[in-house]
Design brief:
By secondary structure, the protein is α/β, with parallel strands linked by helices. The chain contains 17 helices and 11 strands. The strands form 2 sheets. The protein has a 9-stranded mixed beta sheet, with helices on both faces. A two-stranded antiparallel ribbon has the order 9-10. α12 links the parallel β4 and β5. α1 packs across α8, α2 runs antiparallel to α8 and α9 runs parallel beside α14. The longest helix is centred in the last third of the chain and has 32 residues. It is globular.
């Protein structure tokens, strides 16, 4: 994550303040109210900064639309500027003012047409609370150059997405992938330049982390081209907004669409694919596309889309070293039902699977299903041909609350560096209980099952020098001592209960 001089817990404090204003509104609905306001504040702040710069120069026209679009700054009409919005914060017409502002921004910026939610004037939305939200966001600068440098808006937007995902539970998984999972994928496949594709892009988190990776490595964002697709219309709009506030140009298709039945990028052969497709989807319409050209390794079952997603990604990879990183339910590693085992076997024999990483449990807000990362590559190098690297990362991570676990930066780098060292053929060694580079023959000997635990084994325990029989005698003696203490305590408690008239 980007760092800066903002206070620790800034995003959390802002969330708490905003959540207090939610009242009885459903989290899924409130999400669009809040994120729409953040977006409006951002484009207005960015515009205002450029406006003041032109004004100070004295020779530019601060109301010339071209001066802004030339620098990828959204043109914001007068009625949509934040000063106008905040002046109505305590008025009953605040909802109407915001709707008109959003309509005017869409009208003046083609890339946003039909994207922004414009229903702030609806009667059921409490206008007093809405005005208080406007006041809350008035006090943060999210579009200034200093704020951009610290990625304040990106942090706020991402944090709010994660909190809404948590609040919405299972449905939250439709638009949000935990940032630590995204960062792990990005660090592994290193999308430094070329075409980046996500066929199930949600709110665009994979693209934002890819852009961050490029910046952190002093690359040029103009060296990457972003392509995405999303079937959910609301989530597709979230992605458009999420990318717009970061100044990232992207082709997300002409509209929201199903990747299997309305592929918006049929001829694309991407250098990188990053994805977290929906797990174990049973109603994906596979019976309608049984003879599809994408099913090179076998026809996926109509009852589960997992291997349809994998083959869709492989089909869209550049044949000269294109690499894909995706999240998938663990069942796909070992299932042998309805042709899935045959497809997996063909993919292994076709040498397109490069690495499998078992992730720890409880990383996702939306599901408790155990998941793994699949790294697939067309055109492996000499170090990785006919081999698969298995990483068992289930013991990594730490709990951030009672329900959710998170991978630390150290955890992420441990996974990514192990993978890169293996690919580069330097400083890599199998580590029992953590990683193992297995040949295709070794995988075949395991019936083409890809569960990392089968290959890495159990972590070696440190030898404390105590002989096994002596240790067992000592531990057994300790156990019987505890049994005896437990019995004595039971007798003592029963005696005290009888003394006060509550005995048997």
């Amino acid at each position: 994550m980007a760092t800066g001089t903002t206070n620790v817990g800034f995003e959390e404090k802002l969330w708490v303040a905003a959540d207090k204003l939610r009242s009885n509104m459903d989290a899924a609905e409130y999400k669009h109210v809040v994120l729409g306001l953040i977006f409006l504040k951002y484009v207005s702040d960015s515009f205002e900064e450029k406006y003041q710069e032109l004004k100070a120069q004295g020779y530019g026209d601060e109301e010339d639309r071209d001066e802004y679009t030339a620098e990828n700054v959204f043109w914001v009409p007068k009625e949509a500027r934040w000063n106008e919005i905040k002046s109505h914060a305590t008025s009953t017409d605040i909802g109407t003012v915001i709707d008109k502002a959003l309509e005017s921004i869409e009208k003046e910026n083609d890339s946003l047409k039909g994207v922004l939610t414009k229903n702030y004037s609806r009667p059921e939305l409490d206008k007093t609370r809405l005005g208080e939200l406007v006041t809350l966001f008035t006090n943060i600068e999210v579009g200034s150059s200093a704020a951009k440098e610290k990625d304040v808006l990106g942090r706020v937007y991402e944090y709010f997405l994660s909190k809404f995902a948590s609040a919405e539970g299972k449905n939250g998984g439709e638009f949000y992938t935990p940032s630590c999972v995204v960062r792990t994928l990005v660090e592994m496949i290193e999308p430094f330049e070329g075409q980046i594709f996500d066929p199930a892009c949600g709110s665009g988190g994979m693209f934002c982390q890819s852009a961050r990776f490029v910046k952190e490595h002093q690359g040029n964002l103009r060296d990457i081209s972003i392509f995405g697709q999303e079937s959910n219309p609301t989530t597709w709009k979230l992605a458009k907004m999420n990318l717009a506030i970061r100044g990232l140009e992207a082709n997300l298709g002409k509209h929201n669409a199903d990747s299997f039945h309305d592929d918006q990028h049929k001829t694309l052969k991407a250098n990188y694919i990053l994805a977290n497709p929906p797990f174990n989807i049973s109603d994906w319409g596979g019976e309608k596309i049984q003879d599809d050209v994408r099913w090179k390794y076998g026809v996926p079952p109509v009852s589960n889309a997992n291997f349809a997603w994998l083959q869709h990604m492989i089909y869209h990879l550049n044949p000269n070293g294109g690499v894909a990183g995706t999240v998938l339910a663990n069942g796909s590693l070992s299932t042998n039902t309805t042709n899935e085992g045959k497809i997996r076997t063909n993919m292994i024999n076709g040498d397109v699977i490069e690495c499998i990483v078992s992730l720890p449990s409880q990383l996702f807000y939306s599901t408790g299903i155990p998941v793994s990362l699949w790294i697939m590559r067309r055109g492996k190098n000499d170090n990785t041909k006919e081999k698969i690297l298995f990483i068992d990362a289930r013991k990594l991570g730490h709990m951030i609350d009672r329900k959710v676990r998170e991978l630390s930066e150290i955890d992420i780098q441990k996974i990514a560096s192990t993978y890169h060292n293996w690919r580069q053929g330097k400083n890599y060694e199998d580590v029992q209980g953590f990683c193992k580079a297995a040949s295709k023959e070794e995988v075949a000997a395991q019936d083409y099952i890809l569960t990392p635990g089968r290959f890495v084994g159990i972590e070696e325990q440190e030898d404390d020098g105590e002989p096994f029989e002596e240790k067992m005698n000592r531990l057994t003696s300790d156990l019987y001592d505890l049994f005896e203490k437990s019995h004595n305590l039971e007798v003592e408690i029963c005696g005290k209960l009888e003394a006060i008239g509550f005995g048997k």
